[in-house]
Amino acid sequence: MRLAVVDDESVYRNHVAELIYAVYGAENVSCYLYSDGSEIVKSFENGFELDAVFLDIEMKELDGMSTAKVIRKYSKDIPIIFLTSHTEMAMEGYEVDAFRFLSKPVKKDKLLETLNELEKKLKVEEKIILRKDGEEIVYGINDLIYVEAANNSVRFVFKKDTIEMRMKFAQALEMIDGISKDFCKCHRSYYVNLAHVKKLGSADIAMDNGDILPVARGSAADAKKMLFEYIRRAGR
C-alpha cells in the first residue's frame, strides 16, 4: 500500500508512520510524509498515486478539511482518514466523505482497526459486464444499487447509470450471485444490494440513491435477517 501521512507536527507525523511500518514492515507498505496540506495537493497535481491519506485536520497553512476538499477534486474514492484532537469536527468530515477519524495521539489498537477496514476497502472490486449501446461496459458490482424486472427486460440501477438489458430476471440474479453474496430478493421484481440499503420497513425499502422499493409480505422477515447479517459481517 502507498499511504500518505499529512501533519504539520513531525512528532505526530512520524508516530503514525512508525506504527504503520510496525504493522506491515517496510517491504509491504510505503509511507509518504507531508508537513502541510499544500504539499500533498502538489503531489495530486503531479499525478502521484496513493491508496489512502491520513490527514491532520488542524494545520497552520492549508488545514485538513480544506485539503480534503481539494483532494476530492482529483479523487472521489481515495479513503481519507482524519487525525484530530477534536472529535466534534467529525460531522464536517461527512462533506468530504471521510473514511475514518482517529484521535491524536493515535493509539495502535485504533490504527489496527482502521487498517483492517482499509484493507477491505482496497481489495480489488469484483466487476459485472453489461451491454450498452452495442458495447460491453464494465461496472463495479459495489456500485450496483438494485436490479428490477421490467417486462421481458432487466434494469440494472447503478449510482451514476442505469442499464436495461433484454434477459430473464432469473438470469440476472444468477449472474450477480456468481459475483457477490450481498444482494437480497425483497420482492419478486427487485434484487437489492444490501450495502445500499438506507432503511428497511415492513412494506418498503429505502435505497441510498433515494429510490423506495416494495417489500413483499413474505420476504420481509428474510430481508431483515439478511440485512442484519450483512451489517454484522461488513461492520457497517
Strand content: 25-35%
If strands are numbered along the chain, what order do they take across the biggest sheet?
Answer: 2-1-3-4-5
* Largest beta-sheet details: 5 strands, parallel
Shape: elongated
Average the pLDDT over all residues and give the rounded result: 89
Distance between the termini: 23 Å
CATH architecture grouping of the largest domain: 3-Layer(aba) Sandwich
Tell me roughly what share of residues is in helical segments.
25-40%
CATH topology of the largest domain: the name is: Rossmann fold
Structural class: alpha/beta
Identify the quaternary structure here.
single chain
DSSP E strands, number: 15
Q: List segments where confidence is low: pLDDT < 50 over at least 5 consecutive residues.
A: none
Describe this structure as you would to a colleague:
This protein is of the alpha/beta class and 236 residues long. Helix content is 33%, strand content 31%. Helix 2 (37-45) packs parallel to helix 3 (64-74). The chain has helices spanning 10-24, 37-45, 64-74, 90-93, 108-122, 169-177, 220-234; strands at residues 2-6, 30-34, 52-56, 80-84, 100-103, 127-132, 135-140, 144-150, 153-158, 162-166, 183-187, 190-193, 197-200, 204-207, 212-214. The chain contains 7 helices and 15 strands. The protein is elongated. The chain has 2 domains: 2-122, Response regulator (Rossmann fold), CATH 3.40.50.2300; 127-234, LytTr DNA-binding domain (OB fold (Dihydrolipoamide Acetyltransferase, E2P), Beta Barrel), CATH 2.40.50. The strands form 4 sheets. The chain has a 5-stranded parallel β-sheet with strand order 2-1-3-4-5, sandwiched between helices. The chain has a 5-stranded antiparallel β-sheet with strand order 10-9-8-12-11, with helices on both faces.
